[in-house]
User: Fold these one by one.
Assistant:
Number 1:
Amino acid sequence: MPIILRRLLIFTTRHIDGVLLSAILLLMFTGLVALLSAANGSYVRLSGQLMNMMVALGVMWVFANIPPHYLMRMAVPLFLTGCALLVGVAVAGEVVNGARRWLNIGVTRIQPSELMKIAVPLMLAWYFNRNEASLKLRNYAIAALMLAIPAALILRQPDLGTALLISASGGYLIFLAGLPWRIILTLAVAGGASLPLLWSVMHDYQRQRVLTLLDPTTDPLGSGYHTIQSTIAVGSGGILGKGWMNGTQTHLDFIPERTTDFIFAVYSEEFGLLGNAVLLALYLFLIGRAMVITANAPTLFSRLLAGAITLTFFTYAFVNMGMVSGILPVVGVPLPLVSYGGTSLVSICLGFGILMSINTHKKLVQT
Amino acid sequence: MSELSINPGIEIRDSERELQRFRWRLVLLGGFVLLLFGLLFLRFFYLQVVQHGHYSTLAEANRISVLPVAPHRGVIFDRNGVLLAHNYSAYTLEITPTRAGDLETTIDELATIVEITPRDRRRFRKLLEESKRFESLPIRTRLSDEEIARFAVHRYRFPGVEAKARLFRQYPQGEIFSHVVGHIGRINQREVEQLEKSGRLANYRGSDYIGKTGLEQSYEAALHGTTGIEEVEVDSGGRAVRVLSRTPPVPGNNLVLNLDAQLQEIAYQAFGNRRGALVAIDPRNGGVLALVSKPGFDPNLFVDGIDPQSWSELNGSPDKPLLNRAAAGTYPPGSTFKPFMALAALFYGKRAPQQIISDPGFFMFGGHRFRDGRPVPLGAVDMHRSIVVSSDVYYYTLANELGIDPIAKFMALFGFGSRTGIDIAGESAGVLPSTEWKLRRLKQKWYAGETISVGIGQGYNSYTPLQLASATATLANDGVMYRPHIVNYVENIRSGEKTPVEPNPLRDLTLKPEHLKVVKDAMVGVNKEGTSARVFADAPYVAAGKTGTAQVIAIKQGEKYVESRVAERHRDHSLFIAYAPADNPTIALAVIAENSGFGARAAAPIARQVLDYHILGKLPAKPAVTD
């Protein structure tokens, strides 16, 4: 019996990275604490989120046990399917809240842009790995095109947040793949110059978001309301915070979407600068560990994929905290591992599952 | 992997270089991560340490709302504790126009749930025009429990519409007290400015109503009370979550009046369908026992804002129900002026009581024939008889002998021609004619001929029933004059403390008792054997009185006044002054019944019913005037 138990333990933990897992669990716990307060002490949301976490950790375990070369084989079909579905959305998608994001595939409704969050870095990593021996400027251009097509489709839905995150993950990956500096500089200059052009193709609500970001007080009851109220919540928290369950902005309903995108305002109001420092430290610890895994990844494919996953995760955290504290525009990005919601939790844990797989399968590759 | 094995040497070197480059770029990105997280931390530090005070204030301002708590308005009782104005709690349906969207649609939809009459709509539109503040305005008042329940079910459909429990002012006695008690109404912009100027606006936060007329207006400060403050925690929707602190409002003071509600009602009904006024005063202290102006109006119409149709009906009526005839209407006193003229004669020593004047039925002055209306001349008349039978010639000659200015000077002592200072607004001063008055008002000199008719209470003479009653009370009280006052005392309902409004004697006319006796005996004679003897024939008490008939239009020389030939509104006014009991008066009054003919015909019977009730407690079987 003990032998069987030991085997079972080894089987379950063989591909799990303890450091990464403990950081993830700490962040999840922080999220549950903030969620309980944001839901005014109701356990309904809390138990729902616990279920989401179980599923997410299950997905993480499954992906941690899939060797990276299996993933590599999935890259092309996954990417093509994803692109096809995005085209399907553009043609026959369902409109919810003014955005065409969902596709009814008969059995259920799916949001193909979520799939692309993992399919795009997978595809790019596969592409660079395939052309590793003879990387030319042309390859970077093709990679950029492969990134731009889904990003443009998602932007058209319109879903600025997801488009931005997918572009960021692709961008990090192309940078890590060794995009020459002269190209980077040229792009930076050209990008700066094309900002007015970007402004002209933006939707009205997107422009409004940018304008109210620059001065939220211009529309205090409209689109500036979120930013003003969340900034007040953060600022009034002070150094030590108002204490758990004592946030007035939270409990008097001044913070919109306080269980999801704006949960950081709840946390920050109740735990203050000290709590924020702890949270930043936890994220840094997690990102740091993920970077070590990335640095030690055995193949170009796994290195690029791990790097993109790590930095996308960072981007989630930075954009969310930046928007809640009023230095970034309000885009629909959750605080990773903390915000309520199953989809983002699963896609993030899936990413960490891949990281663990990369870290624990390299010895098998080498031997 | 198979591709790697083709040329392992080169590939490994390249891989090493590639790996170095990759790691270098990863380190750069690590620095990027640290930089941006550092930026976030600086932002947190700025918000939570540097600007903490600012954001704390904003969060508190979000959280706490200071709400005014309107005090209960004081209630008004008559001298016997009969309620004249009180508050009751009921539900109103109110719309906040700024939050309700399209008003017409909202009201149309509301009308499918609760009854909304065209009158409600008109009133709401009027309120909407008048309101300057972002306030909620009532569309329906006094909702039934069933209507409230129905609205509660459909409430989600009506943003900006709320059912509110409110205190309503009600005047249970309706039109009978309309001019005395007055009414409250919604505060208008002009009143807001006045309150602001006098520094009382803060106390009216939370109050929608203010006294507009009558006692409700003149005792506004006592009745209103002090507004309380409630500090509440509110959520983002502005709903109060809990009360943090509360300074309770101080309810307004109650008013207890000198008025006798029963007496007032008897007097009001006694007029039948005639127009007129009656003022009854306790001569011993100036307390107003009754102040009637007929017709009245229903003051309850005004409380929530009167609808335009009812308003134009009241305002346009030829009967002028909105006019307070008792205090603002002025009439020639007619022969009720004679007792005061007799006193003036004695005061100036112009005539001895027993001095005989010959009354041939007319008095010639400057070629003009001043008539006495009666068919048979009176002949020899002394002062007593001149009052009892109401000789005109006696007073034509007396006025001529006294001269206008001495008359004016003496009459001013009794308060004729000046406001009494009663405790409601809107009083008229009337006209006490004199050479100075005529010069000032008409820019003309006084003609001696004009003095003659002043002697019988005609000519330029014009006084309010209140002045006449006050003068009668002063006479009854032997020349000691009190300011007429409706309120007996103001009662603080918390401490029970009673603050009396009066009385302090205004002045003592220091009239000689023997002079007073002549006039007062003559006034007793009026009711015993004189012009109103038939009206008081069976009275078990002794009442002093004087009839009066006031011309509304001048009768041409050589013509005779025939009532049936004159339009109703041009007929003579019927007047009567009285006090009783004659030896120790507790009530003095003045009555005018408009266009009702001789004093003894309408005004005296009204006075009789009032005195009967006041002295005997006797209730009349039917109105005194029945035509």
Number 2:
Amino acid sequence: MTATENPPTYTWVGTRPIRHDGYDKVTGKARFAADLDLPGQLRAVYVRSPHAHARIVSINTAAAEAMPGVKAVVTGADFPDLGAADPEYDVSVNVMARDTVYYHGHAVAAVAATSRELAADAAAAIVVEYEELPAVFTIDDAMADGAPLVNETNFTKFVKADEPSNLSTITNLERGEVDDAFAAADLVVEREFTTAAVHQGYIEPHACVVDTGADGRASVWCSSQGHFRVRSSTAAVLGWDVSRVKVTPAEIGGGFGGKTTIYIEPVAARLSEMAGRPVKIVMTRDEVFRATGPAPASKVRVKVGATNDGELTALEAWMAYNVGAFGNVAGLVGAMSVASYKFPNLKLEAYSVLSNLPKSAAYRSPSAPHAAFAIESVVDEIAQKLDIDPIELRLKNAAVEGDVTAMGMPHPRIGFVECLEAVRESEHYQSPVPDGAARGIAAGFWFNIGEQSSATVHVNEDGTATVITGSPDIGGSRASMALMAAEELGLDVNSITPLVADTESVGFTDTTEGSRTTFATGMAVVQACRDLIDDMRSRAATTLSVDVGEVIWADGAAVAEGHDPVPLASIAAQSKRTGGPLTASASLNAAGAGPSFAVHCGDLAVDEETGHTKVLRYTAAQDAGTAIHPSYVEGQLQGGSVQGIGWALNEEYVLNDDGSLDNASFLDYRIPVASDLPMIETIIVEVPNPSHPYGVRGVGETGIVPPMATIANAISRAAGIRMTALPMSPPHVLTALNER
Amino acid sequence: MNRTHVNCTVNGDDVDFLAADGISLLDALRDELGLTGSKEGCGTGDCGACSILIDGKLNCSCLVLAPEAEGAEIVTVEGIADGDHLHPLQQTFLEGAALQCGICTPGFLVAAKALLDTNPDPTETEIRYALAGNLCRCTGYDKIIRSVQEAAVQLREVAK
Amino acid sequence: MTDHRRFTDGEAVIEVDGATVGAVIAELERRYPGLGEALTEGSSAGINGEIHAEPEFVAVAPDTDIYFVAPLAGG
């Protein structure tokens, strides 16, 4: 279903063609990074820390270097010390430990050999002597007075900090007078919530092949959401100029934020440089869980005041995010993500807290799910206590254009109210709750971002077009680029070939993240197409001997009054006579990203004997602005919802006392499987973003924000228990049922 | 190093390869035969990205030692189309947008084929349980299930 | 952004002259030492309802509201 406000009529935008890259993906031909092999290629294997925090006393690689097939060994000594002030310093130390390991699984050394097996044998022969240091793993322990320092190079950001600290950011946001508002409130609800660390869980482990040539230049093929960032970070970690690194993006097997940073490319590049041969690194799943991602664990206290008629008058929240062993702005972003309700009085205190755990990474709407789980749970409890419909309560307080977010900036045109109304009017919400089940509602917000994008469009001599961008396609964005180009040029979408080019074949483009690709890269594609159209109008004016001002572009042809339309294919065929090849490029730093809201509705049943929660029906509504390819917009809503359902019900990092991960496999870290779920119904709300030529907001992020509270709110109504800790797995639900 | 000479058929072709001790059939398919359509997501049989058919039965090829393929008929994702004519599952996956990143898609296609080969008219629940050994992190499974349902309808029409 | 009011004796809204965001930041730094540097670290701004990344050279008019916000990324 699509709820559209004054829909414009488009020929291609909003249709559902088969994605261009789909054929290779259903026949097994698509080339992911691990599928590439180069002649003479070596395989590399890591040595990783068995301690959560330790000083490296010595590393002896002599025995390993003498073993059969071993061609190169690297340790931290093979990488430059960038200095703690360098913006890439943390990445460089995370890629390979220097004199200290900061978490269990931290890379200490790597071996390149003629086979993976020989490399593994040699890695096992490397002797590392450690001196263990005190370690902390929880927010409470890391924030306690006298807590051991996690990372001596971490200073609190944005303040003049003289001493290293376990706090990366401290944020205070305030408006109004919360104390007065709580005193005047008819009802105040206050609760504390915790969430476990969760992994992005992309099915493709990190992989790369790097060939460093005798000229000192490295060619990198890798799985990444942003190959320009791979280029700059890899160069920085190696101490190289950026221009020494060329990165070609392979097909990417999922990222969800987890592939916006680097782990392996500089290691492969250095090994390749030392060995004079290409080096391939493919992480094991165990390594992915232990040494990449995850999203932070959190602890959030929320206090909300309301009047008896359901006006939410005040919000006070204390938030802490466990960001792992390196600095991170998760707490700041979590506070900024508080943007859904008017709350005339608001006071937020947020912390990014270091611990001796892996460096946390972005995961779909990073930091927003933690805050929303807490706030949406308390808001729902207020609706329950006041006996107000949960959608009506939210509608009464929903932010609209001009209302300010926690950071003080007024919202532009947003579609939160429209999402709430769409769920309220849905067949799902209008239908009775099934016997033995209960229904939950929750909302979510994410900013979306703009940033830099480039596109080049060629009109080929046969009247087709090639659209080249620098945005790795993680969810169908090539199809979106082709659709927007088809709409602009008036070409059949199947006459357009959308490609993602390497770092030397297209202009600089920021990472695919923050739901920015269809928005910002789409703007660059549209601009390049419009420049091409101007050129083609001019070419047609030449052949028709009319003034270019008399030529318009309509339905894929140059049209001048009194003349037959000159179709694009004809202009293309004559291009040599009219000035040469038809090509245009556009680059921009896109302003005006449109925030996206989502509202979810879930029916579930709780098995009171086992504590198992079964989701029976689930609907996700989200404001897409405009859905360029509705099938892939639905796919983003469905995928985000199910990741959130997994976060809600099952997924968690289970840590041993020594800080090692106890469940580093898909068997024990259980993401949702098909039999856990119902169909995920979607409602695409379309409140166009006025800053985009087609009204795009971006849809990748927000879908993961509402599910945790949606599930918790439904469990509360099903079983009379208010779950405040994630995951709401059977043992935890059973405990709560028994304490009821 | 000991290497075992293995003869089998893969996607209808007679093939042979040398398997080093301890390597999985997945590694042999990818590294010895160049069939990289089967993916390694975990190496422990938990994700299903390496799903293949061995004598018609669904297997995680990462859990099969390469010499176990001796004499077997193996089908991988590269072998489920009929020449240039896509299998109905491949076509419905494309039309139904049942893939986003595509890394799990080969495994899902093979697992879904294994299901429909033996149960041409499965219920939604049967499909969900038959595919429960295949992990997808992008789609939430909805469009995969619907595409399998649609392919089942098309295959039953053809069979009439 | 984060607690900038510590630079401004508690004022959250300040009127400043300047033709670009960068000029406004320079004037704020002159009047409230330390604030300009803090705002440059938080390198995005909401200007007339649109978020701009690294906005130093974005033109502003006398009635423009500028909201300094932290740089954002996403997943």
Number 3:
Amino acid sequence: MTITEKILARASGKQKLSPGDVMFATVDRVMLHDVSGPGVIKVFSEWEKKRGLKLTQIWDPDRVWVTEDHFVPSVDRISAENITNLSNFTKQYGINKHFKYGLGQYGICHTLSHEEGMVLPGEVYVGGDSHTNTTGAIGAFAAGLGHTDIAYVLMNGRIWFKVPETMLFKINGIKPDHIMAKDIILKIIGDIGTDGANYKAMQFAGSITKDLPMEERLTLTNMTTEAGAKNGIIEPDETTYAYLRERTDAKYSPVHGDPDAHYSEVFTYEIEKLEPTVAKPFSPGNISAARELQGTELDKAYIGSCTGAKLEDLRAAAEILKDRKVKIRTEVLPAAQSIYMKALKEGLINIFMQAGAVVGPPTCGACCGAHMGVLGKDEVCISTTNRNFPGRMGHVESKTYLASPIVVAASAVTGRITDPRDVRN
Amino acid sequence: MLRGRVHKYDSDNIDTDVIIPGPYLKIHDHKELAKHAMEGIDPSFPGKVSQGDFLVAGNNFGCGSSREHAPIALSQTGIKAILAQSFARIFYRNAVDGGYLLPIEIEKSTVKKISDGDKLEIDIANNKITNITKNEHYFMKPFPELIAKIVEAGGLINYKADY
């Protein structure tokens, strides 16, 4: 069995599972945020109204955490009241891990999941957000669900899954310094398409995956969602364990795939052959080499989100922006308060501000076109985020190009889509 | 037996950002969400739909976010089923587990044969679709066993799971 199959087998008390089997799995961790949380509360109120089902307690408050990330700082009265409702809910049901905007550590849900070491290897983790896949880089089964399913988990501690087939992506070679994990995953999505992994698991392996630091691995799994995958996963190793040791002393029992595990497809990439890659409007699968697009005029560069504002992302962008000036509006929003503080300590925030960029608080805001820098009609943006559907970051006639932090930083310097090699002298 | 008129959007990858754009995610009132259904592709959509109508689209319908606002908004306009070549996984399970609407998979050739405005009759029990306007018959892909049971129960909360 693959790692995904083995985790699901363990969670459903089965000796063996095969792709296509449907089972109810016991859940280890659950996440809700300020969009899915109020959605879940609404589901409970509908169940009570229509079915007389009153929620007296939730299955295990210690396995649940809540973040405020999409509409913080509050955009208007509705979003402020959503936060109030969420706070009342966590208080009522004894959920102590509620990361509040403006009250110590907080940030984007997926970033907190790993930054706080809240999901452990071998676990089943579900979240009320499609990019929950991100945390699979820890060696867990991590998948996004909607409000009804999360409400069901909060009541029962279980949810149904169809065991996915696993596609294996082996990435080998010696990593050039103009290539980041974002280039790898954009290339893969370009190759297999935005539904190329629908209902499937995407597992990453190979010498490069082993060499990548944890945060770069998380970029790979984060964007498996853009290929339609049920989950993205990487087998845990010493890099994983060292990352977790710095964050938690919780015990866990990792799971590894069997040597004779069956993969539905195996893809091999030689990293030296990759180019700095950009996904053009309006699909993460619509890729080109950055150099093929050079000269494309931009209005804005955005360095933010769970995909592209982790500490490694900020370090990479700062390496380009150091002693340079940005030519277009550039916004940097670290993905969590703790990352913001580390960036401050390392002098990265100073580099961004000296370059002329604005640095903002952690939020999903502009990535999902909600607030804090949405795009107007005809505006063109290059972004470290994960989606560029029509209207994703603002007006339906705005355009977003997706790229790695170093491509975005290099493009900020020139005001046009730029390969980082072309600004590094 | 379901009967209704077709609203056809002949494209692949109709994503959740066009089904219900990001700024509306803060809204949780179902009727309010319906006013913005499909706003990113056709702002006039909610006004066109009658109770029980169908939406027909191509591949990978509902890709993108996990927002349950998407099937809620569509169902609240009156849409009873979506007929598409394939669905993104979270949209599919949200539609079924929430009991909002039926995600029905049909062949690419069937998508082509159905036109905007056609009247359809869908026989879920026998996996048959009749195009009354064109006097044609199509097959729908049967629901997998668990999905059929959850559909029959009217949502996951009503389904008695045997763990």
Number 4:
Amino acid sequence: MKGGRNRWIQPAINLLITVALLTTLSFLPPDTSLSDRQKTGVLKLCVPPSYPPLVTGDPQQPGFDIELGGKVAAELGLRLAVNTLSSIGTDFNPRNWSLTRGQCDIIAGGVADTLQSRSFLQTIPTPIETGWVGVSKSGQLPAAGGSVVVLPGTSGLDRLKLSGWLRQQSRQVIPARSPQQFAETLASGRAAAGITERFLTAGMALPEGVTPFWLDEAQFPRFRMAFGLWKGDQTLKRAVAAALQRLEAAGDMAALEARYHIETIEEAP
Amino acid sequence: MNPIVMALRGLYGVWLREITRATRDRAQLIGGISRPLIWLLILGVGLNPYFRGEVYGEVRFVIPYTYLQFLFPAVIVLNIMYTSIQFAVSVIWDREFGFLREVLVSPMPRWLILLGKVLGGATVATLHGALVLILARFADVTLSLEQVALALLLMFILAFGLTSFGVILAARVRSFEGFGVFSNTVILPLYFTSSSIFPLDPALTRAQQAVTYPEWLVFLVQINPITYAVDALRGVLINFNQFAPAMGVGVIVAMAVVFFVVATIDFARQ
């Protein structure tokens, strides 16, 4: 019996040494993204000029994402530098926004945690949800053959799926280039309803009587909004994710949601 | 004694011998550590910046994961491949030094002896694969208990199939030296053509893939069964599949069954 026990001592020691070594190595930093920020003391947050309520342009209430970014920077012992870039959201192809690593550490103010976004960035979801919403006076989309104005936005929702679905439903699509054009098309009656991304409706002057409603969730799932970080910036991502968790545990996140009247998904939009 | 109990005790004995031998062999454990270190810590970190893009939207590596995360399941498969196929050395060793002859004259059926050996090899290979899971934090892969359990199951079935494949190779190679060279010419090409270190973008059609990669390479990747094993593990560990998820599981199970049957036939001839 004693001999049988002794037989396993050596393999157990070998295995323990192996596991201890690998565990220790797993704590090595895989990149310099966090240490670089700590050297400069600055965390750069890129946002569009306006994306209410995430970015408002109001110095008193600058927006959910900007205030959250400030709290994250404070948690990391860094100073937040907000880069407001008008190029963000001007084109559906994010490549044309010309955002570079030199300008931004984090991209916020309209990044949804979707597969498309994650093809270019690594994302840390915030509690806020987005998705496709319809807007009309009747609270529903018109029957087949009816016209729908569509403003896809730039948060990374699946526009191909939406256009395929609209084609399948035989609805006439009127593309809009801006929130203003979207609202004008609705007001003129050229379109019986509109479809856009949830938060784009917040900054629009929609015609009176028009109300937003979610599109069918089974067809069009909702997504969390997110902070977008460059792929490969693992150490920075871990530090930001940990800071967000601490803020959530301290109740700061909930306080921010209340301050910006960001309703739960059941109540919104 | 009940013949079934006797057979099971024999099976346990053969399995235990393989486990004891492998876990006492420090060189094997060093191999199990060095591969993930080289591939994840050095190659993964070294190439990571080239796949991250400097301009938003310009990344060519259009999968929703970092390079380290993409590489992580493939390194598990690499560790399993090496350990499983190298296990055949134990078969050659037993053959050369007469242990196999002693076991073969026991009342145990040959297929049961082989099953014990293959189960032993598969257990050790799964352990080596599981060692890579310890580096999940480094690769920024978050794992739930269900994911780990499912991954271990897939890893074990894969290890079973590959260990059987090692036995098939051992039946055709008569010396240690020959096997060393032969195993490397099998493992590395299989690994490199399994979409382990570069992705076949699932959003691309075959014609579009042929624009990114030469058609012969796409063809090699698609006919390589290890491609589907890596894909199945990616599905479980990072929720990313390049092929239909059921396909990976099907290929792994099929490999286990077919290779074990062939190995049994070969082993019976020895």
